[in-house]
Fold:
Amino acid sequence: MSVLIAFLSLAVERVLGYPDWLFNAIGHPVTWIGRLISFLDRRLNRATDSDEIRRRQGVRALLIILLVPGLIGLALHVLLWLMFPTGLVIAAILGSSLLSQKSLAEHVEEVADALETGGLTLGRIAVSRIVGRDPEKLDKAGVARAAIESLAENFSDGIVAPAFWTGIGGLAGGAAYKAANTADSMIGHRTPKHEAFGRAAARFDDLINLPASRLTGLLIVLAAFLVSGADPRAAWQVMRRDARKHRSPNAGWPEAAMAGALGLSLAGPRSYGGEVVEDAYMGEGGRREAESTDIRQALKLYHVADWLLLGLFAVLSAIVIYLTILLTQ
Structure:
């Protein structure tokens, strides 16, 4: 049932996204998880404690962050299984809230639109909604590259990974993954406040994203075979050559594949909060003067790769259903 939930969740979210009326009514699961993380951060992350104590408190916080959504997801999974087949539809709708296919594409497309209609000023405003780097330091090419990098990385973190863990562990797996990923984004930073307390969250997020990041890179390579103007051979070669050079153990795989497919040079040094973070280039030697047309080409690759992901889960679901029927005869 878990693989089928993942497949149906992908299908539902791709078509409907997360409706505004539902967000206005009850918020979003990520906001609920965020409140829990903020509460634990306030209660357990004390500036007067030593780094060792803060690291231990961070481990405790991570366990709570994983267990609360995970147990809720498990209870819902069991309850909805007992309501089969109606429960499967409800599970798919709930699972779709853990994904971000539609909103990711819309936000990245807004950057391309802004660059084309409003120039650099509007482009910076649009890209600031999806990246954490300093937008005022970006020129037009930097805005375009940032949007493409965000698209590649968030395809992994926001779509492939939650679908993967939902396929493994049902609603419990998907909810626990989303909680861990949200914790990393909120407290997994190398800042004086969170370097010790958020260490467990950051390390755990790196670990659970290992399989999805590699799969995402492969999906982008395969998509390059199907998108006119993309270079699948370069996507594969650049991914194999550069992915491990990235400061993140996971972001390099989709970013390098995207860089190769587009003939661009992505990543490299970036500015966050006034500080420059050194990083290797993905696609060293490629073009750095990215344009809005490159964003649109990246979106084509993304959409095809997303369809391939949906197809993969469709095949896996068919296999599971076939084996289930075979074993129950």
